[in-house]
Design brief:
By secondary structure, this protein is α+β, with helices and mostly antiparallel strands. The chain is 52% helix and 19% strand. It has a 4-stranded antiparallel beta sheet. It has a two-stranded antiparallel ribbon with strand order 5-6.
């Protein structure tokens, strides 16, 4: 019985610890990286739109206006010091690139520069994810400690409590078995026959001597057997003083047999019960 319970506690405790210690940081990382990529592509598209407007005004020589391109990109780069932008031609030749060192890891996104239906170049945005990596590391450390606490709270401690409970129960069962063995030995080594009945006149217990005295079969001496069945068996096997008749039991727990003769073994006299209860 303890094995299924222990298995459920182990699985539940390990699952909660894994969700807290690994699931939360992993979910946060995926969500934040998705947001970072969306922001980076949005930034690249805005820069591409501004460069396309400039190229539309200047014409084919737009790629030679380096200072103007630098001004356009600087407007957005000044807002975020952890990113760097680059303009490349359709054949991937670098037209202009911001000189800024970025910490690893770096996420890259790009957007086309279009004038009408023609793609005249690409804008590439590189963004450092070092700040996000630090956040994830801090969150992972906190969740790791919470996961260890959850592991002990939902797995180790409940298993210890379960072991103590079952150990206490086993000790109690051992004591009851020992008490039963002592009581059984005392009852079955008595020279007298002994039986006990409850308030509803059903057999609670009897010893072997009692069963041997009247040659009772095993089904008669089972707990719960009505007193009337025991008396009826004694009558049927002529172990109730002789005679025949129906068995009755009164409110006080006594019994008699209507119209039957009973022998008093102490006085060797015969008596006859009245027909009334």
């Amino acid at each position: 019985m303890t094995t299924p319970i222990r298995s459920v506690i182990k699985i539940a405790g390990a699952s909660i610890a894994l969700v807290v210690g690994i699931g939360i940081p992993l979910g946060y990382s995926v969500q934040e990286l998705h947001h970072a990529r969306q922001h980076m592509f949005w930034k690249a598209e805005r820069s591409a739109e501004q460069i396309a407007e400039h190229a539309y005004k200047i014409g084919p020589l737009w790629s030679y206006t380096v200072h103007r391109l630098e001004e356009i990109l600087a407007r957005r780069s000044n807002e975020d010091k952890s990113s760097r932008q680059r303009i490349v031609s359709p054949n991937r030749k670098v037209i202009f690139e911001e000189e800024r060192a970025l910490d690893w890891p770096i996420l890259v996104g790009q957007a086309p520069i279009r004038v009408g239906e023609k793609t005249i170049g690409w804008i590439e945005v590189e963004e450092s994810q070092a700040p996000l990596l630090k956040e994830i590391g801090l969150l992972a450390a906190i969740c790791g400690m919470l996961g260890i606490a959850a592991f002990f709270s939902f797995r180790v401690l409940p298993l210890r409590a379960l072991d103590r409970a079952f150990a206490s129960l086993e000790t109690r069962n051992t004591q009851l078995r020992n008490q039963y063995a002592i009581s059984d030995a005392a009852l079955n080594n008595m020279t007298q026959g002994l039986c006990m009945f409850d308030a509803k006149q059903r057999l609670i217990i009897c010893n072997k001597r009692y069963a041997d005295l009247y040659s009772f079969p095993g089904d008669i001496t089972k707990p719960g057997t009505p007193l009337t069945d025991i008396i009826a068996h004694r009558i049927a096997t002529d172990n109730y003083g002789g005679g025949t008749g129906a068995v009755q039991t009164g409110p006080s727990g006594g019994n008699c047999r209507q119209g039957a003769e009973h022998r008093n073994h102490r006085t060797e006299r015969w008596t006859r019960h009245a027909d009334s209860a």
